[in-house]
């Protein structure tokens, strides 16, 4: 069995990871981090129009994801698989499930706070509606 945990380092992502580890003792756990260019664009500074900005943003975001994965691994007593992908989080999570033989999803109810969460909608809600496998939402 393979279980994917969308992971952004938030408190609810941590709770989702702990829940997955407790509930799926014999499963392979995959931490999935989605780099969202659209959300990054909302927060981009004026220099985002300069050549090379987005390449640098991507490299920095991948490095931050690796740090998140290392920190998550430190807190658990079994090996975790990790993967980083680019795109809109809900769509990419569902596609990942479909393309990587995933049996279940365990995710936090939200990772973002405040206005961006309202503007961008609920990733968890979209995954629950579209996922071909069971989704557990942790609060």
Features:
139 residues; alpha/beta; Rossmann fold; 5-stranded parallel β-sheet; 48% helix
Walkthrough of the structure:
- Strand 1 (2-6), helix 1 (11-23) and strand 2 (28-35) form a beta-alpha-beta unit.
- The protein has a 5-stranded parallel sheet with strand order 3-2-1-4-5, with helices on both faces.
- It is of the alpha/beta class and 139 residues long.
- The protein has one domain (2-138): HUPs (Rossmann fold).
- Helix 4 (89-99) packs parallel to helix 6 (123-130).
- It has 6 helices and 5 strands; from the N terminus they run βαβααβαβααβ.
- The model has no long low-confidence stretch (mean pLDDT 89).
> At the third CATH level, what is the topology name?
Rossmann fold
State mean pLDDT (0 to 100 scale).
89
Question: What share of the residues lie within helices?
Answer: 40-55%
- Strand line-up of the largest beta sheet: 3-2-1-4-5
Number of helices: 6
Distance between the termini: 23 Å
So what's the oligomer here? Answer: single chain
Strand element count: 5
Order of helices and strands: EHEHHEHEHHE
- Mind telling me the CATH class? Alpha Beta
Number of domains: 1
What CATH architecture do you see? 3-Layer(aba) Sandwich
Integer-rounded radius of gyration: 15 Å
Percent of residues in beta strands? Answer: 15-25%
Largest sheet: 5 strands, parallel
State the fourth-level CATH superfamily: HUPs
Stretches where pLDDT is under 50 for at least 5 consecutive residues are: none
Q: What would you call the structural class?
A: alpha/beta
User: Based on CA inertia axes, which overall geometry fits?
Assistant: globular
